[in-house]
Each structure stands twice: as structure tokens, then as C-alpha cells.
Amino acid sequence: MASSYGENASKSALRSSYLELCRNFPEGLAAGVDRAVVRMLGMVREYREAGLVLAYVPFHEEMDTRPVIERALAQGKRVALPYLQPRTSRLSFFEVASADGVELASRGMRVPPVGEQPLEAGEMVGSVCLVPGLVFDGEGYRVGYGAGYYDEFLAFYPGEKIGLVRSMQVSSNPLPHDEHDVPVDVLVTEGSVWRCRRL
């Protein structure tokens, strides 16, 4: 695992550091690494057995998830993408038929198809949620962009939480977190599948 500033570092300092790291990662190398992450995801039992995948589209320098979406659909899985409800600032997920042709909204979210209804919690039982983040630690805690949308959603999410991340974005030191932060269950990098251990 890569190093970080450790648990004494502030989230804002970690966020700035890993944003810079991702910006400077060579584009050609990133594409190969991201393809390897997609292959490793296929080794995760919960992903293989899931009929529904809650995915996301990349924001700024996040890992390219479009191949994940395309592969999941090709495997006959249902795929849903997040939408930030403007009045409540809460995440909802809407089922999509492809990663293309869906209007991009703020913060990398996608505008849902007109007239469609968001998925209910009961429909998400047995699903997997792919969780974005700038850096993760071995217990599954993460530092994202700081808005807290995913933590609020994941607090009530009934399925398996999977972080997709390049290995350079996995910290060997514990990340700062509080009682509102929700860790993922599994980390998938280009070289490993890591079952998160929490003390």
C-alpha cells in the first residue's frame, strides 16, 4: 500500500495531495491500470453474483468506470447511476441502459431519464455499490471530495460496498474519519482484492 500523511493529517490536506497525485498520473498508464482494475473486479464473488450494480461516472481524475458499466450490462446485470436530488442534496440511483447519452449534471452525477423513478432501498438488496474516493485505507475508510453525499447514502444501503481504486490511492496509514463516515467492504486495485478489516 502507498503511504499517506497518516491519521493526523487533515482530510483537506489529504484531498489536495491525492488530487495532485491523480492529476500527475500519466494518462496512458492510467488507462492500462484502470483496465486491470476492471478485470480484478470480476474476481469479487459479490460482484459476480449481483444482479444490480450501482455504479458512477468519473469526476475529474477518478478511475474511468465506463468499461465497468459496459461489461456489467453485457453480462446481463442491471446498472444504476447516481443523481443528486437538488432539493434534498441526497443521492438517488436511476437505472440506465448504457453509459452514453445521459446528460451530465453537477459533480459528475448524471441527470436521470425523464419520467423515470429512482430505485427503492428494497430493490438494492443483493446489489453492489461501487464507491468513488480519492484515497482509501485498509479498513475501508475513504477521503472523497468532501460533500458527504455517499456517506449519507451508504449509511442505509443494504448491499456490498466496493471501492475501485488505483493502488497508489491506497494508504498504508489509517485515514481520519468520524462516526458519520461509512467504510467500504472491499477494495479492488489493479493487483489485488482487499477485504477490509475494521478494528
From TrEMBL:
GO molecular function, one term: 5-formyltetrahydrofolate cyclo-ligase activity
EC code(s) of this entry: 6.3.3.2
Cofactors named for this entry: Mg(2+)
Pfam families: 5-FTHF_cyc-lig
Principal EC category: ligase
Xref: InterPro entries: FTHF_cligase, FTHF_cligase-like_sf, NagB/RpiA_transferase-like
Keyword terms: ATP-binding, Ligase, Magnesium, Metal-binding, Nucleotide-binding
Record has Methyltransferase as a keyword: no
Catalytic activity: (6S)-5-formyl-5,6,7,8-tetrahydrofolate + ATP = (6R)-5,10-methenyltetrahydrofolate + ADP + phosphate
Family membership noted in the UniProt record: Belongs to the 5-formyltetrahydrofolate cyclo-ligase family.
Name of the protein in question: 5-formyltetrahydrofolate cyclo-ligase
Organism field: Olsenella absiana
